[in-house]
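Hello forum,

I keep getting stuck at the same step: I have a sequence, I want structure tokens, and every attempt I make locally crashes halfway through. Rather than fight my setup again tonight, could one of you with a working pipeline run this one for me? It's a single chain of 213 residues.
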Amino acid sequence: MPLYKTITVQPGIKAYIWHVTESEAELSKDLVLETNSLSRIKCMKSEIHRRAFLSIRHLMKIPGYVDRDLFYDKAGKPHLHDGNFVSISHSHQYTGLIVSTEKEVGIDIEKQREKILRIAHKFTPINEYRTIANVDALIRKLTMVWGAKESLYKIYATHGLSFLHHINIKDFSISDSSTTGEILYLGKVSNYTISFVDFEGFSCVYAIRKDET
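Reply #2:
Ran it on my machine without issues. Output:
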């Protein structure tokens, strides 16, 4: 069982990362999937996506959940029937899961790729990064920013929310392990703590919604 990493974020919140090395057949063993999940898998043309889907069900076993414990709302946000908060991510050969008993959470895993240089202007003011001369460092930071915004978006889960215009991430150094973020949308403000974990050329970002004051 290639559980790559377990992160105890704080009491009541844990994150899990899986390194997907098994075949689809191996991952299918010992899993009981609901009809809707079986239908989703059949519609997935990519074997990588099918293996990711199955590996997430194995990750769910670690905190004690099975496939039938998970459902999605109309916005596509996952929920657990027991009322705990959950978020899911996958990128290439890694998948991630975060579960929280009290606070809303989001997780995102992204591979650090040069492609992000071409799309950065769509999700962040690119001029703010002009002092970063090292290309590898720029790719890494932009990946962290994207992951942070993606994590917040997964928590908020509202159509019409813009990464560029509505989600703000407080500036940070790539050596930092955390920062904060804010969503300002339709006159409402919500705040979040954000943490970073880098591994094997990937960035994992997880966010926690702060209690409103």
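The mean pLDDT is 95. If your local run keeps crashing, start a new thread with the error log.
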